[in-house]
Amino acid sequence: MTVERSLDLEIETGQDGEEGPSARIAVVRVHGCTRDGSADTITASCRVMGALEREVARLHAELDAALGRAAEVFGADAPSAREQTPSAARSAAEEHKPSHIQLDLTVGDVMTRDVRTVGRNDRLAKASEQMRSGELRHLVVLDEDGNVAGVLSDRDLAFNALSWSLGQSEHAHEQALDHFTVKETMKADVVSIDSSAPLEEAARRMSREQIGCLPVVDSDELVGIIAASDFLQLFS
After folding, report:
1. Over the range 153-167, which residues count as b (16 or more CB within 10 Å of their CB) and which as e?
2. What SS3 state is found at 228?
3. Contact 116, 136 (CB under 8 A)
4. What CA–CA distance (Å, rounded) separates 34 from 37?
5. What is the spatial distance between Cα 228 and Cα 212, in angstroms, rounded to a whole number?
6. Which of the chain's ends, N or C, has fewer CB atoms near its CB within 10 Å?
7. Whose CA is closest to 115, among 19, 34, 28, 225?
8. pLDDT digits (tens, 9 = 90+) for 87-110
């Protein structure tokens, strides 16, 4: 069903003894849409939310255009974003939304230097205890030579151990933690960063890789860790 333009601006010029023009929003050329067969509507019949949103957006656009024309008639300034319809104001805000925050900080300025680590051959029970005692969400995993071999998160620990003991008792879950090693659960494809890198680079890498932390490595030596919580603490 095709619906012609539904809204327009009607203008009446001032008559003798009246001051200036008057204006009103008019409903025009509505086709075939009625409510209970008795009243014209100004949108097409919509069966899904997305279609209704598009119709409402169309009406907002027509109202914005009418306001712009009214401003010309009355010799006023065009409405500001605060005076526009809510959808128009949101669109304007999105257009001017900053894409990033410029900070003159490096990773070393924000990172946590006291890094808790675990060996890749350690049992998950040991890693779980370290996370609980330190209220941590990530542990850096080291190999036998002390090099970064992976990262273990609380989600890795929970989901993998849970899947191993699914449908069994809490005791079975604890047994799974004591049976499996860190290297069987950790993320081995480590994305790291050096301490002199700009802080925004760390944010970009974490966003791009969809990860919650980055080990900070200088000259193959682990010197810190930067996590999403460090960014939250910075801005709070």
Report:
1. bbebbeebbeebbee
2. helix
3. yes
4. 5
5. 6
6. C
7. 225
8. 554 554 455 455 566 668 899 999
